[in-house]
């Protein structure tokens, strides 16, 4: 089987709306390595878009899924419950940076988690309004498209969207948006669009994922917490991409003194199995009536088993500490590359959530073209990189945190050459 032949079949069989980045097709994978159907090998710095913090096919995750497979694959938790769902909720409740007693509910996708957080916030407050931020990405369902702060490609041709959703500015020093500017944008929303007493929740990513790995300043999180407390608004942290050791803590919100009321999570929670969750203050989580939350596959037993194994691996292999160390090393390499690569405008990092933004040195404008060239050169040498950012001019690094040292060094060599060229 050849990649070109499969590509032809894909174009015939599947719609163009499902955009596909790579022209090659996966046949197998192990930790941080992918092999395609033609036997070519690639170092995977995409990890299924931040899903594989514990790598492809971690032995502990595989063993957990196999063991559950021998017991049962599905009952629908709302019909016949099972202990593993309850014990996983207990583990997350202990670890989530939430003030006071915590409860957790499981779902299937990140978008579903965010959508359920909105349902819970509205049920608890009795208010309709939701505020999110420009550059944020929260999903592809109708509610989460409305929350997402980026039009192309996510919203093109799909409107109208659910109402009572408003977008503030997210702090971004490189693009001249200070924390004060961001807070002023919320005040403008309160004056022009919606009374703060009608706002149920402010939803933000502590590090914007699709938006370019923009890290929320500590003073911004503190100011949001103060604002929410003043007006009875819930603070919701979307940790779908930042969760499970990526930033050097289990959750990115652990880097801040202020705590959210609700946290959404998915992606690396279950090591490649579809599972998401909402965790939050017990009295908030209990607002919806019985039957108001759930889903046919929500908290699927195979995915729950995988998540238990993921949490074990993060602790046993000290992946939070490793994320800090690998991220620090990568930032050093990027800083060294600056001397020979004037297109580097900014390097941003929190643990192993690292990004580099490129501008055209001639005019200082964001350069998606340069970003594409770096991606292509790296891929020619066998390194898979992902881009992001509102202008498509950011490369984000999402290697498995379990990547072998030797392979990580090899990948950084490829990256350095791609930047120098």
UniProtKB/TrEMBL annotation:
<protein>
    <submittedName>
        <fullName>4-aminobutyrate aminotransferase PuuE</fullName>
        <ecNumber>2.6.1.19</ecNumber>
    </submittedName>
</protein>
<keyword id="KW-0032">Aminotransferase</keyword>
<dbReference type="GO" id="GO:0009448">
    <property type="term" value="P:gamma-aminobutyric acid metabolic process"/>
</dbReference>
<comment type="similarity">
    <text>Belongs to the class-III pyridoxal-phosphate-dependent aminotransferase family.</text>
</comment>
<dbReference type="InterPro" id="IPR049704">
    <property type="entry name" value="Aminotrans_3_PPA_site"/>
</dbReference>
<dbReference type="GO" id="GO:0042802">
    <property type="term" value="F:identical protein binding"/>
</dbReference>
<dbReference type="Pfam" id="PF00202">
    <property type="entry name" value="Aminotran_3"/>
</dbReference>
<dbReference type="InterPro" id="IPR050103">
    <property type="entry name" value="Class-III_PLP-dep_AT"/>
</dbReference>
<dbReference type="InterPro" id="IPR005814">
    <property type="entry name" value="Aminotrans_3"/>
</dbReference>
<dbReference type="InterPro" id="IPR004632">
    <property type="entry name" value="4NH2But_aminotransferase_bac"/>
</dbReference>
<dbReference type="GO" id="GO:0030170">
    <property type="term" value="F:pyridoxal phosphate binding"/>
</dbReference>
<dbReference type="InterPro" id="IPR015424">
    <property type="entry name" value="PyrdxlP-dep_Trfase"/>
</dbReference>
<dbReference type="InterPro" id="IPR015421">
    <property type="entry name" value="PyrdxlP-dep_Trfase_major"/>
</dbReference>
<keyword id="KW-0808">Transferase</keyword>
<dbReference type="GO" id="GO:0034386">
    <property type="term" value="F:4-aminobutyrate:2-oxoglutarate transaminase activity"/>
</dbReference>
<dbReference type="InterPro" id="IPR015422">
    <property type="entry name" value="PyrdxlP-dep_Trfase_small"/>
</dbReference>
<keyword id="KW-0663">Pyridoxal phosphate</keyword>
């Amino acid at each position: 089987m050849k990649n070109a032949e499969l590509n032809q079949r894909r174009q015939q069989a599947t719609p163009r709306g499902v955009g596909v980045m790579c022209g090659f097709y996966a046949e197998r994978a192990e930790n941080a390595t992918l092999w395609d159907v033609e036997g070519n090998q690639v170092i995977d710095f995409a990890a299924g878009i931040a899903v594989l913090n514990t790598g492809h096919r971690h032995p502990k995750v595989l063993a957990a899924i196999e063991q559950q497979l021998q017991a049962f694959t599905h009952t629908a938790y709302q019909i016949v419950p099972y202990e593993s769902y309850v014990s996983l909720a207990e583990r997350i409740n202990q670890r989530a940076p939430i003030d006071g007693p915590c409860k957790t509910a499981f779902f299937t996708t990140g978008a579903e988690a965010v959508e359920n957080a909105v349902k819970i916030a509205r049920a608890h407050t009795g208010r309709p309004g939701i505020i999110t931020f420009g550059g944020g990405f929260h999903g592809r369902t109708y509610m989460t498209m409305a929350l997402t702060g980026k039009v192309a490609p996510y919203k093109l041709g799909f409107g109208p969207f659910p109402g009572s959703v408003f977008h503030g500015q997210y702090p971004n020093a490189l693009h001249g948006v200070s924390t004060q500017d961001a807070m002023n944008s919320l005040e403008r929303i309160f004056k022009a669009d919606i009374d703060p007493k009608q706002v149920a929740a402010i939803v933000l990513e502590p590090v914007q994922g699709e938006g370019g790995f923009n890290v929320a300043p500590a003073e911004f999180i503190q100011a949001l917490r103060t604002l929410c407390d003043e007006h009875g608004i819930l603070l919701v942290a979307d940790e779908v991409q930042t969760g499970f050791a990526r930033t050097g803590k289990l959750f990115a919100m652990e880097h801040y003194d202020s705590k959210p009321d609700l946290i959404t999570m998915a992606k690396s929670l279950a090591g490649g199995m579809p599972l998401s969750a909402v965790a939050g203050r017990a009295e908030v989580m209990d607002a919806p009536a019985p039957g108001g939350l759930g889903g046919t596959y929500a908290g699927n037993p195979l995915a729950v088993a995988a998540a238990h194994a993921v949490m074990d691996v993060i602790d046993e292999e000290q992946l939070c500490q490793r994320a800090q160390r690998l991220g620090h090393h990568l930032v050093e390499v990027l800083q060294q590359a600056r001397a020979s690569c004037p297109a580097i405008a900014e390097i941003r990092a929190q643990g192993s959530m690292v990004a580099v933004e490129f501008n055209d040195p001639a005019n200082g404008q964001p350069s998606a073209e340069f970003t594409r060239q770096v991606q292509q050169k790296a891929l020619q040498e066998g390194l898979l990189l992902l881009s992001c950012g509102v202008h498509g001019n950011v490369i984000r690094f999402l290697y498995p945190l379990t990547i072998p040292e030797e392979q990580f060094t090899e990948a950084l060599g490829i990256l350095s050459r791609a930047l120098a060229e």
